[in-house]
Amino acid sequence: MINNIISCEFNIDTACVEVKLADGSMVSIDCTAVENEYANNMYETSELDFLIYNEPMSYVRLLLSGKVKEYLRNNTDYTPLSDMR
After folding, report:
1. 83 located within any domain
2. N or C: which end of the chain has fewer CB within 10 A?
C-alpha cells in the first residue's frame, strides 16, 4: 500500500489525513485517534502534529510501517516533571 500512494493532504475540517491511492480509492486517517493511541504527552503529540501539517506523506508512511512508537521514542526529547525533582 505504501508504494500505491499518490497524494496525502490534511483536512482540518475532519481532522483526518486523506490519502489518494493509485487505484483511485481514498483512505481517511483519523489523526485524533492516532494521537490517542500513540502519544503519551504533549511533546509526542506535537511531533505527530508537525508531520500532519508539514509532511503528511511521511506521516502516512510512518503509520503504515507500524513504527510510530519507535519514531516517537527516537525523535521526541523531553524530561518528565517527575524526573526533575
Report:
1. no
2. C
Which helix (H) or strand (E) element contains residue 58? Answer: helix 56-65
Task: Indicate the SS3 state at residue 49.
Answer: helix
Sheet with 16-21, side-by-side order of all strands: 5-11, 16-21, 26-30
Residue 30 belongs to what domain range? 2-76
What's the one-letter identity of residue 19?
V
The domain tally of the chain equals 1
First to last CA, the chain: 46
Cell of 4: 500505491
